[in-house]
Amino acid sequence: MSKAFFLLLAALPLLAQAVSFTNQIKPVLAKQCSGCHQPQSMQSGLSVTTFEALKKGGTKGPGFVAGKPDESLLVGYLTGAKSPRMPFGGKPLPEEDIELFRAWIREGAKDDSAGAGAASAHVPKVPSQPIAYKSAPLVTAFAFSPDGKMLAVSGYHEILLNTVEGKLIARLPGKSMRIHGLAFTPDGKTLAAVGGDPARSGEAQIWDVETRKQRASIVASADTFFGGALSPDGKLLVAGGGADKSIRLIDVEAGKEVRKIDHHEDWVFQGVFGVDGKRLVTVGRDRAAKLTDVSTGRFVENVNLLKDSLMAIVRHPKRDWVAIGGAERIPYLYRLDRPRAMRIADDSTLIRKFDRQDGPITALALSPDGGKLAVGAEAGDVRIFNAETGDLIARCSGHQGGIFALQFSPDGANLVTGGFDGHLRFYDMSGKMVRDFVAAPVELSRGN
After folding, report:
1. pLDDT at 357 over 70
2. Which residue among 155, 189, 354, 412 has the highest number of C-beta atoms inside a 10 angstrom radius?
3. What is the pLDDT of residues 233-258, one digit of tens each?
4. For the chain, how big is the Rg over CA atoms in Å?
Protein backbone atom coordinates (compact mmCIF):
# COMPACT_ATOMS: atom_id res chain seq x y z
CA MET A 1 0.00 0.00 0.00
CA SER A 2 1.17 3.54 -0.74
CA LYS A 3 2.37 6.05 1.86
CA ALA A 4 -0.44 8.38 0.80
CA PHE A 5 -3.00 5.71 1.71
CA PHE A 6 -1.66 5.45 5.25
CA LEU A 7 -1.60 9.23 5.60
CA LEU A 8 -5.22 9.32 4.51
CA LEU A 9 -6.10 6.66 7.08
CA ALA A 10 -4.37 8.71 9.77
CA ALA A 11 -6.39 11.76 8.79
CA LEU A 12 -9.76 9.97 8.76
CA PRO A 13 -10.59 10.60 12.45
CA LEU A 14 -9.93 14.30 11.90
CA LEU A 15 -12.04 14.39 8.76
CA ALA A 16 -15.01 12.50 10.17
CA GLN A 17 -16.44 15.88 11.14
CA ALA A 18 -16.26 19.15 9.26
CA VAL A 19 -12.89 20.81 9.73
CA SER A 20 -13.10 23.84 12.03
CA PHE A 21 -11.37 27.05 11.00
CA THR A 22 -11.29 28.27 14.62
CA ASN A 23 -10.15 25.06 16.29
CA GLN A 24 -7.97 23.41 13.63
CA ILE A 25 -6.92 25.82 10.89
CA LYS A 26 -6.36 29.07 12.77
CA PRO A 27 -4.07 27.54 15.47
CA VAL A 28 -1.73 26.21 12.77
CA LEU A 29 -1.68 29.59 11.03
CA ALA A 30 -1.03 31.36 14.33
CA LYS A 31 1.90 29.10 15.18
CA GLN A 32 3.50 28.71 11.77
CA CYS A 33 2.56 31.73 9.67
CA SER A 34 1.43 34.78 11.66
CA GLY A 35 4.97 35.90 12.50
CA CYS A 36 5.40 37.15 8.92
CA HIS A 37 1.74 37.53 7.97
CA GLN A 38 0.01 39.72 10.59
CA PRO A 39 -1.46 43.23 10.31
CA GLN A 40 1.77 44.81 11.54
CA SER A 41 4.04 42.72 9.28
CA MET A 42 2.21 41.65 6.12
CA GLN A 43 4.78 39.96 3.90
CA SER A 44 3.44 39.92 0.32
CA GLY A 45 0.50 41.97 1.61
CA LEU A 46 -0.96 38.92 3.37
CA SER A 47 -2.35 38.57 6.89
CA VAL A 48 -3.54 35.19 8.18
CA THR A 49 -4.80 36.31 11.57
CA THR A 50 -8.49 36.37 10.64
CA PHE A 51 -10.73 34.48 8.23
CA GLU A 52 -11.51 37.67 6.31
CA ALA A 53 -7.83 38.56 5.88
CA LEU A 54 -6.92 35.04 4.75
CA LYS A 55 -9.75 34.98 2.25
CA LYS A 56 -8.75 38.39 0.85
CA GLY A 57 -5.18 37.21 0.37
CA GLY A 58 -2.26 39.39 -0.66
CA THR A 59 -0.36 40.53 -3.71
CA LYS A 60 -0.52 37.03 -5.26
CA GLY A 61 -4.32 36.84 -5.04
CA PRO A 62 -7.02 35.41 -2.76
CA GLY A 63 -5.80 32.97 -0.14
CA PHE A 64 -8.13 30.19 -1.24
CA VAL A 65 -10.92 29.22 -3.58
CA ALA A 66 -13.74 27.60 -1.60
CA GLY A 67 -14.36 24.02 -2.76
CA LYS A 68 -11.15 23.92 -4.83
CA PRO A 69 -8.05 23.11 -2.75
CA ASP A 70 -5.88 22.42 -5.79
CA GLU A 71 -6.58 25.94 -7.12
CA SER A 72 -5.94 27.61 -3.77
CA LEU A 73 -2.73 29.57 -3.18
CA LEU A 74 -2.74 28.51 0.48
CA VAL A 75 -2.41 24.82 -0.43
CA GLY A 76 0.03 25.55 -3.25
CA TYR A 77 2.53 27.34 -1.00
CA LEU A 78 2.15 24.84 1.86
CA THR A 79 2.82 21.85 -0.42
CA GLY A 80 5.61 23.49 -2.40
CA ALA A 81 3.66 23.38 -5.63
CA LYS A 82 4.27 27.12 -5.63
CA SER A 83 7.59 28.65 -4.70
CA PRO A 84 8.87 29.48 -2.15
CA ARG A 85 7.42 26.76 0.03
CA MET A 86 5.90 27.94 3.27
CA PRO A 87 6.62 28.40 6.14
CA PHE A 88 9.50 30.30 4.57
CA GLY A 89 12.83 29.16 5.98
CA GLY A 90 11.14 26.66 8.29
CA LYS A 91 10.23 22.98 8.30
CA PRO A 92 7.34 22.07 5.96
CA LEU A 93 4.06 21.32 7.68
CA PRO A 94 3.31 17.67 8.41
CA GLU A 95 1.23 16.05 5.67
CA GLU A 96 -1.69 15.57 8.06
CA ASP A 97 -1.81 19.33 8.70
CA ILE A 98 -1.76 20.08 4.99
CA GLU A 99 -4.57 17.55 4.50
CA LEU A 100 -6.61 19.52 7.06
CA PHE A 101 -6.26 22.65 4.93
CA ARG A 102 -7.24 20.69 1.80
CA ALA A 103 -10.28 19.21 3.54
CA TRP A 104 -11.37 22.58 5.00
CA ILE A 105 -11.25 24.21 1.57
CA ARG A 106 -12.88 21.19 -0.10
CA GLU A 107 -15.75 21.46 2.40
CA GLY A 108 -16.33 25.07 1.43
CA ALA A 109 -13.79 26.91 3.64
CA LYS A 110 -16.44 27.94 6.13
CA ASP A 111 -15.83 30.50 8.87
CA ASP A 112 -16.95 29.26 12.29
CA SER A 113 -15.29 32.12 14.21
CA ALA A 114 -17.37 33.72 16.92
CA GLY A 115 -18.68 37.10 15.80
CA ALA A 116 -17.22 40.20 17.33
CA GLY A 117 -20.62 40.86 18.84
CA ALA A 118 -22.08 44.04 20.17
CA ALA A 119 -20.75 45.83 23.19
CA SER A 120 -21.82 44.36 26.46
CA ALA A 121 -25.14 45.56 27.79
CA HIS A 122 -23.93 44.88 31.33
CA VAL A 123 -23.95 47.99 33.50
CA PRO A 124 -21.69 47.41 36.55
CA LYS A 125 -22.77 48.90 39.87
CA VAL A 126 -21.07 49.82 43.12
CA PRO A 127 -22.25 47.52 45.97
CA SER A 128 -24.68 49.25 48.33
CA GLN A 129 -23.12 47.57 51.38
CA PRO A 130 -19.48 46.82 52.29
CA ILE A 131 -18.41 43.33 51.35
CA ALA A 132 -18.40 40.86 54.24
CA TYR A 133 -15.46 38.49 53.80
CA LYS A 134 -15.75 34.99 55.24
CA SER A 135 -12.29 34.07 53.96
CA ALA A 136 -9.32 35.91 52.51
CA PRO A 137 -10.03 37.06 48.93
CA LEU A 138 -7.29 36.26 46.45
CA VAL A 139 -4.84 39.09 45.80
CA THR A 140 -4.75 39.90 42.10
CA ALA A 141 -2.96 43.25 42.46
CA PHE A 142 -1.35 45.57 44.98
CA ALA A 143 0.86 48.66 44.95
CA PHE A 144 3.07 50.58 47.35
CA SER A 145 2.56 54.29 47.81
CA PRO A 146 5.73 56.18 46.75
CA ASP A 147 6.71 56.84 50.38
CA GLY A 148 6.42 53.12 51.19
CA LYS A 149 3.98 53.67 54.07
CA MET A 150 0.78 52.37 52.48
CA LEU A 151 -0.40 49.49 50.31
CA ALA A 152 -3.37 49.53 47.96
CA VAL A 153 -4.66 45.96 47.64
CA SER A 154 -7.30 44.36 45.43
CA GLY A 155 -10.51 43.22 47.10
CA TYR A 156 -13.90 42.08 45.84
CA HIS A 157 -15.67 45.11 44.34
CA GLU A 158 -13.23 47.35 46.22
CA ILE A 159 -9.68 48.51 46.84
CA LEU A 160 -8.30 48.10 50.35
CA LEU A 161 -5.85 50.66 51.73
CA ASN A 162 -3.57 49.24 54.42
CA THR A 163 -0.50 50.33 56.32
CA VAL A 164 2.53 48.18 55.55
CA GLU A 165 2.05 46.65 59.01
CA GLY A 166 -1.37 45.37 57.94
CA LYS A 167 -3.73 47.89 59.56
CA LEU A 168 -6.79 48.68 57.43
CA ILE A 169 -6.98 52.41 56.65
CA ALA A 170 -9.85 52.67 54.18
CA ARG A 171 -12.10 50.76 51.79
CA LEU A 172 -12.70 52.17 48.32
CA PRO A 173 -15.79 50.46 46.82
CA GLY A 174 -16.12 50.37 43.05
CA LYS A 175 -17.91 48.79 40.13
CA SER A 176 -15.26 46.21 39.24
CA MET A 177 -15.72 42.74 40.65
CA ARG A 178 -11.98 42.14 40.33
CA ILE A 179 -9.09 44.60 40.34
CA HIS A 180 -6.19 43.39 38.18
CA GLY A 181 -3.86 46.38 38.29
CA LEU A 182 -3.02 49.15 40.77
CA ALA A 183 -0.54 52.04 40.59
CA PHE A 184 0.12 55.30 42.42
CA THR A 185 1.22 58.42 40.56
CA PRO A 186 4.78 59.53 41.42
CA ASP A 187 3.50 62.23 43.78
CA GLY A 188 1.30 59.71 45.61
CA LYS A 189 -1.81 61.87 45.24
CA THR A 190 -3.65 59.69 42.74
CA LEU A 191 -4.35 55.96 42.62
CA ALA A 192 -5.22 54.27 39.33
CA ALA A 193 -6.83 50.85 39.04
CA VAL A 194 -7.99 48.55 36.24
CA GLY A 195 -10.27 45.54 36.42
CA GLY A 196 -13.84 44.63 35.62
CA ASP A 197 -16.38 41.84 35.54
CA PRO A 198 -15.19 38.79 33.56
CA ALA A 199 -16.98 38.39 30.21
CA ARG A 200 -19.11 41.47 30.98
CA SER A 201 -17.16 44.72 31.25
CA GLY A 202 -13.79 46.36 31.81
CA GLU A 203 -13.18 49.42 33.96
CA ALA A 204 -10.45 51.89 34.86
CA GLN A 205 -10.77 53.81 38.13
CA ILE A 206 -9.03 57.04 39.14
CA TRP A 207 -8.99 57.89 42.88
CA ASP A 208 -7.95 60.90 44.93
CA VAL A 209 -5.83 59.38 47.68
CA GLU A 210 -6.25 62.13 50.27
CA THR A 211 -10.04 62.40 50.09
CA ARG A 212 -10.61 58.69 49.24
CA LYS A 213 -13.00 59.87 46.50
CA GLN A 214 -13.24 58.39 43.04
CA ARG A 215 -12.53 61.01 40.37
CA ALA A 216 -13.38 58.90 37.35
CA SER A 217 -14.76 55.53 36.30
CA ILE A 218 -14.11 54.58 32.66
CA VAL A 219 -16.18 51.54 31.65
CA ALA A 220 -15.44 49.98 28.28
CA SER A 221 -15.00 46.63 26.53
CA ALA A 222 -17.03 43.46 27.03
CA ASP A 223 -14.43 41.87 29.29
CA THR A 224 -12.19 42.80 32.20
CA PHE A 225 -9.09 45.00 31.88
CA PHE A 226 -5.61 43.86 32.88
CA GLY A 227 -2.29 45.63 33.41
CA GLY A 228 -2.67 49.06 34.93
CA ALA A 229 0.81 50.58 34.53
CA LEU A 230 1.32 54.34 34.62
CA SER A 231 3.65 56.39 32.44
CA PRO A 232 6.71 57.75 34.28
CA ASP A 233 5.06 61.17 34.65
CA GLY A 234 1.81 59.61 35.89
CA LYS A 235 -0.27 61.17 33.11
CA LEU A 236 -1.21 58.06 31.14
CA LEU A 237 -2.58 54.70 32.27
CA VAL A 238 -2.32 51.62 30.07
CA ALA A 239 -4.99 48.90 30.29
CA GLY A 240 -4.92 45.60 28.43
CA GLY A 241 -8.34 44.88 26.99
CA GLY A 242 -8.32 41.18 27.74
CA ALA A 243 -10.52 39.28 25.32
CA ASP A 244 -11.01 42.20 22.92
CA LYS A 245 -7.24 42.12 22.23
CA SER A 246 -6.89 45.87 22.60
CA ILE A 247 -4.56 48.26 24.39
CA ARG A 248 -6.24 51.34 25.86
CA LEU A 249 -4.50 54.52 26.95
CA ILE A 250 -6.32 56.62 29.54
CA ASP A 251 -5.63 60.24 30.41
CA VAL A 252 -5.41 60.19 34.22
CA GLU A 253 -6.16 63.87 34.79
CA ALA A 254 -9.08 64.02 32.34
CA GLY A 255 -10.36 60.58 33.32
CA LYS A 256 -11.06 59.45 29.78
CA GLU A 257 -9.78 57.04 27.16
CA VAL A 258 -7.59 58.81 24.61
CA ARG A 259 -6.41 55.96 22.40
CA LYS A 260 -7.37 52.38 21.55
CA ILE A 261 -4.67 50.28 19.89
CA ASP A 262 -5.31 46.95 18.18
CA HIS A 263 -1.89 45.43 17.51
CA HIS A 264 -2.36 42.15 19.36
CA GLU A 265 -3.94 38.99 17.99
CA ASP A 266 -5.06 37.55 21.33
CA TRP A 267 -5.68 38.59 24.93
CA VAL A 268 -3.48 41.40 26.28
CA PHE A 269 -2.37 41.03 29.90
CA GLN A 270 0.21 43.67 30.84
CA GLY A 271 2.09 46.67 29.54
CA VAL A 272 4.88 49.02 30.61
CA PHE A 273 6.11 52.41 29.40
CA GLY A 274 9.71 53.10 28.43
CA VAL A 275 11.94 55.24 30.61
CA ASP A 276 10.95 58.46 28.81
CA GLY A 277 7.29 57.48 28.42
CA LYS A 278 7.43 57.73 24.63
CA ARG A 279 7.25 53.98 24.01
CA LEU A 280 5.03 51.21 25.32
CA VAL A 281 5.59 47.45 25.46
CA THR A 282 2.63 45.10 25.90
CA VAL A 283 2.40 41.32 26.24
CA GLY A 284 -0.35 38.75 25.82
CA ARG A 285 -1.38 35.33 24.63
CA ASP A 286 -0.16 35.95 21.07
CA ARG A 287 3.41 35.41 22.38
CA ALA A 288 4.60 38.88 21.44
CA ALA A 289 6.12 41.74 23.43
CA LYS A 290 4.92 44.50 21.12
CA LEU A 291 6.66 47.87 21.02
CA THR A 292 4.39 50.83 20.26
CA ASP A 293 4.94 54.56 19.75
CA VAL A 294 2.77 56.24 22.40
CA SER A 295 2.18 59.54 20.58
CA THR A 296 0.84 57.93 17.39
CA GLY A 297 -0.18 54.43 18.44
CA ARG A 298 2.06 53.09 15.65
CA PHE A 299 3.36 49.54 15.99
CA VAL A 300 7.16 49.51 15.88
CA GLU A 301 8.16 45.85 16.17
CA ASN A 302 8.10 42.75 18.34
CA VAL A 303 10.84 43.06 20.93
CA ASN A 304 11.13 39.32 21.47
CA LEU A 305 11.42 36.12 19.48
CA LEU A 306 7.95 34.52 19.61
CA LYS A 307 7.88 31.35 21.73
CA ASP A 308 4.81 30.94 23.96
CA SER A 309 2.03 33.03 25.49
CA LEU A 310 3.17 35.85 27.80
CA MET A 311 1.46 36.95 30.99
CA ALA A 312 3.91 39.25 32.77
CA ILE A 313 6.26 42.13 32.01
CA VAL A 314 8.23 44.63 34.11
CA ARG A 315 10.61 47.42 33.08
CA HIS A 316 14.02 48.16 34.52
CA PRO A 317 13.72 51.36 36.62
CA LYS A 318 16.64 53.09 34.91
CA ARG A 319 17.06 51.45 31.50
CA ASP A 320 14.89 50.54 28.54
CA TRP A 321 15.08 46.86 29.43
CA VAL A 322 12.06 44.64 30.08
CA ALA A 323 11.72 41.25 31.73
CA ILE A 324 8.96 39.04 30.32
CA GLY A 325 7.56 35.62 31.16
CA GLY A 326 4.61 33.32 30.65
CA ALA A 327 3.62 29.80 29.71
CA GLU A 328 7.16 28.73 28.75
CA ARG A 329 8.15 29.17 32.43
CA ILE A 330 11.42 30.90 31.50
CA PRO A 331 11.97 34.60 32.34
CA TYR A 332 13.76 36.64 29.67
CA LEU A 333 15.42 40.05 29.85
CA TYR A 334 15.26 42.12 26.64
CA ARG A 335 16.41 45.57 25.55
CA LEU A 336 13.99 47.76 23.59
CA ASP A 337 16.61 49.01 21.15
CA ARG A 338 17.79 46.50 18.57
CA PRO A 339 21.59 46.53 18.14
CA ARG A 340 21.41 45.68 14.43
CA ALA A 341 18.98 45.50 11.53
CA MET A 342 16.25 42.93 12.15
CA ARG A 343 16.62 39.52 10.54
CA ILE A 344 14.39 36.46 10.32
CA ALA A 345 14.18 34.68 13.70
CA ASP A 346 16.21 37.54 15.19
CA ASP A 347 16.68 37.52 18.96
CA SER A 348 19.42 40.16 19.07
CA THR A 349 17.51 42.17 21.70
CA LEU A 350 17.86 39.35 24.23
CA ILE A 351 20.14 40.20 27.15
CA ARG A 352 19.76 36.94 29.08
CA LYS A 353 17.36 34.24 30.14
CA PHE A 354 16.93 32.88 33.65
CA ASP A 355 16.22 29.47 35.18
CA ARG A 356 13.03 27.67 34.29
CA GLN A 357 10.31 28.02 36.96
CA ASP A 358 8.03 25.36 38.45
CA GLY A 359 4.93 26.69 36.66
CA PRO A 360 3.81 29.28 34.11
CA ILE A 361 5.09 32.74 35.08
CA THR A 362 2.35 35.08 36.28
CA ALA A 363 4.20 37.98 37.95
CA LEU A 364 7.55 39.77 37.72
CA ALA A 365 9.19 42.58 39.71
CA LEU A 366 12.49 44.45 39.53
CA SER A 367 14.08 46.06 42.59
CA PRO A 368 14.31 49.88 42.72
CA ASP A 369 17.99 49.76 41.71
CA GLY A 370 17.29 47.23 38.94
CA GLY A 371 19.71 44.73 40.41
CA LYS A 372 17.25 42.01 41.40
CA LEU A 373 14.49 40.25 39.47
CA ALA A 374 11.69 38.47 41.34
CA VAL A 375 9.67 35.80 39.54
CA GLY A 376 6.29 34.41 40.61
CA ALA A 377 4.48 31.49 39.02
CA GLU A 378 1.39 29.33 39.24
CA ALA A 379 3.35 26.86 41.35
CA GLY A 380 6.50 26.72 43.45
CA ASP A 381 8.51 29.29 45.34
CA VAL A 382 8.99 32.91 44.33
CA ARG A 383 12.61 33.26 43.25
CA ILE A 384 14.89 36.28 43.40
CA PHE A 385 17.67 36.49 40.79
CA ASN A 386 20.62 38.76 40.23
CA ALA A 387 19.39 40.67 37.18
CA GLU A 388 22.94 41.37 35.98
CA THR A 389 24.28 37.81 36.14
CA GLY A 390 21.17 35.61 36.22
CA ASP A 391 22.33 33.89 39.41
CA LEU A 392 19.72 32.76 41.93
CA ILE A 393 19.86 34.84 45.14
CA ALA A 394 16.96 33.51 47.22
CA ARG A 395 13.77 31.46 47.25
CA CYS A 396 10.66 32.76 49.04
CA SER A 397 8.37 29.96 50.22
CA GLY A 398 5.17 29.53 52.22
CA HIS A 399 2.54 30.29 49.59
CA GLN A 400 -0.61 28.18 49.36
CA GLY A 401 -1.26 28.51 45.64
CA GLY A 402 -0.21 30.59 42.67
CA ILE A 403 1.27 34.11 42.74
CA PHE A 404 -0.57 36.94 40.96
CA ALA A 405 1.35 40.04 42.08
CA LEU A 406 4.87 40.96 43.17
CA GLN A 407 6.54 44.22 44.16
CA PHE A 408 9.69 45.33 45.94
CA SER A 409 9.26 47.91 48.67
CA PRO A 410 10.39 51.42 47.59
CA ASP A 411 13.53 51.11 49.75
CA GLY A 412 14.35 47.71 48.21
CA ALA A 413 14.57 46.00 51.60
CA ASN A 414 11.59 43.67 51.10
CA LEU A 415 9.84 41.73 48.38
CA VAL A 416 6.07 41.47 48.83
CA THR A 417 3.99 38.69 47.26
CA GLY A 418 0.26 38.19 46.79
CA GLY A 419 -1.83 35.52 45.20
CA PHE A 420 -4.36 32.75 45.45
CA ASP A 421 -4.36 32.33 49.25
CA GLY A 422 -5.14 36.02 49.89
CA HIS A 423 -2.05 36.74 52.01
CA LEU A 424 0.51 39.50 51.58
CA ARG A 425 3.93 38.16 52.57
CA PHE A 426 7.02 40.29 53.13
CA TYR A 427 10.44 38.72 52.55
CA ASP A 428 13.93 40.07 53.10
CA MET A 429 16.58 39.58 50.41
CA SER A 430 17.69 36.29 51.95
CA GLY A 431 14.23 34.83 51.34
CA LYS A 432 13.19 34.97 55.00
CA MET A 433 9.54 35.87 55.63
CA VAL A 434 9.34 38.87 57.95
CA ARG A 435 5.61 39.69 57.83
CA ASP A 436 2.36 38.04 56.73
CA PHE A 437 -1.16 39.48 56.80
CA VAL A 438 -4.52 39.53 55.05
CA ALA A 439 -5.53 42.99 53.81
CA ALA A 440 -9.27 42.30 53.81
CA PRO A 441 -11.32 42.44 57.04
CA VAL A 442 -12.21 38.75 57.34
CA GLU A 443 -15.09 37.92 59.66
CA LEU A 444 -14.27 34.92 61.80
CA SER A 445 -17.09 32.46 62.43
CA ARG A 446 -18.12 31.74 66.00
CA GLY A 447 -15.94 29.21 67.72
CA ASN A 448 -12.75 30.44 65.94
Report:
1. yes
2. 155
3. 999 999 987 778 899 999 999 999 99
4. 24
Give how far Cα 97 sits from Cα of 10, 79, 297, 368, 374, Å: 11, 11, 36, 48, 40
DSSP 3-54: HHHHHHHHHHHHHSSPPPIIIIIHHHHHHHTTTTEETTEEGGG---SSHHHH
- DSSP character string of 363-387: EEEE-TTS-EEEEEESSS-EEEEET
Residue type at 170 in one-letter notation: A
Which among 319, 308, 404 has a CA at the least distance from the CA of 363? 404
SS3 68: coil
Return d(Cα 126, Cα 157) in angstroms, integer: 7
Residue range 262-310, pLDDT digits in tens: 989 999 999 999 999 999 999 999 999 999 999 999 999 999 999 999 9
Q: In this structure, which amino acid lies at residue 2?
A: S
pLDDT at 114: 52
Nearest 5°: phi and psi at 195?
180, -140
CA dihedral 113, 34, 280, 359 (to 10 degrees): 80
Q: Where exactly are the structural domains of the chain? A: 3-106, 142-438
For strand 201-208 and strand 213-220, is the pairing parallel, antiparallel, or unpaired? antiparallel
- CATH, range 142-438: 2.130.10.10
Q: 213, 207 in Cβ contact below 8 A?
A: yes
**Packed helices 3-15 and 95-106: angle between N→C axes, nearest 10 degrees:** 60
Distance CA 277, CA 336 (A): 13
Instruction: Flag whether pLDDT at 375 surpasses 50.
Output: yes
- Which has more pLDDT, 20 or 113? 20
How far is the C-alpha of 265 from the C-alpha of 245, rounded, in Å?
6
**Residue 400 CB contacts under 8 Å (≥ 6 apart), including other chains:** 420, 421, 423
